């Protein structure tokens, strides 16, 4: 009888052992995207990976005692079989290197899998950046006081913490170092000039990794330019100073978008480094106002209508540019346009809207321009473009603005064509139509 009892107990024990969940004796899987991190004090570090376990996970921890990192993902209530994790931290400013990050995945039975990631010191490689300064800057000279006060205002950026800024003005025997401590620094520094003249200034910014940025500037100490008062014009137009307006049937004045009070934006194409642009609130080269660059201070936009010889055209350089003009602050900013998405689809043009005769335009030598030679008939006042790909989906046209006509690349949801209005044509005119797909502008020029 006892023998039978022992057999039953043995069988029962065997059954209980067999009821243990399959895979409970396996350790969790743990994948981390790296096992070595290069960093320096202040750098943001990101770690990501995946933990997995057939029986279900309980926690994922990330720890570094020296840097006081102690992160625990409590996932026990869910017990997922897969857990993706990502964690970011900033290396402490007083960090010692190398250090180890310990990552541990634990399943619901307490089994663990660990990974150790080494963090070593590697200095930053990106040089600091100086923002807010132009190459040439005007310093107003007060004849009565016999001085001109220059205020340096700049914002400095660094990947690593900035160490110092060295300001040098050799003609004034200025060689001053300003200690820095952060990755972003706002600088305000004053210097008084006792005489008019042109003074080179050098700024040298150094970060704690040893990266250095040197920027050269020219301070022009001069009597203030007597510029004209400005108004907040409802619209502005850009035009090329060297172009002959009488050669243009359409497109000489390029419409500028009004972005804010006194602020206007336009996209332009400059054929060469000598191509210059002026800006006007009316479609007149010598109208009520004409804005251009100061001959003394680079990138300073002014109007001196009483003596227009003191205003010159703004030269952005050869290429496609966005220009942002603030006539109240007398500033202009430029940026190169990204033309990678500029359309090179076949364009079709009708120089006589009434005839509905469209001709395919030929691709010009300039990458983003297409052109065709046409004859505009007497009395005709319209022209139109469309892309065969879009089947009238995109149409070039003029539309009425608050202050007058503007032109641009218009999207027709109804897939209907539209046209632009020309000046009245009093006799047949042979012309070349140039459509620029990068700046979405059109020129019609007499041949």
How many extended strands? 35
Number of helices: 1
Rg calc? 35 Å
Overall pLDDT confidence:
81
Notes on the structure:
- By secondary structure, this protein is mainly beta.
- The chain has four domains: 29-121, Immunoglobulin-like, CATH 2.60.40; 129-222, Immunoglobulin-like; 236-336, Immunoglobulin-like; 347-446, Immunoglobulin-like, CATH 2.60.40.
- It is built from one helix and 35 strands.
- The protein has one helix spanning 2-18; strands at residues 29-32, 36-39, 44-52, 57-64, 69-74, 82-90, 99-107, 112-121, 129-131, 136-142, 147-157, 162-169, 174-179, 184-193, 197-207, 212-222, 236-240, 248-250, 254-260, 263-270, 277-280, 292-293, 301-302, 319-326, 331-336, 347-350, 359-360, 362-363, 369-376, 382-387, 394-400, 405-411, 420-421, 429-436, 441-446.
- The strands form seven sheets. Strands 9, 10, 11, 12, 13, 14, 15 and 16 form an eight-stranded mixed beta sheet that branches. The chain has a six-stranded antiparallel beta sheet with strand order 21-17-19-20-24-25, with no helix packed on it. Strands 26, 27, 30, 31, 32 and 33 form a six-stranded antiparallel beta sheet that branches.
- β34 (429-436) and β35 (441-446) form a beta hairpin.
- The radius of gyration is 35 Å and the shape is flat.
- It starts with a helix and ends with a strand.
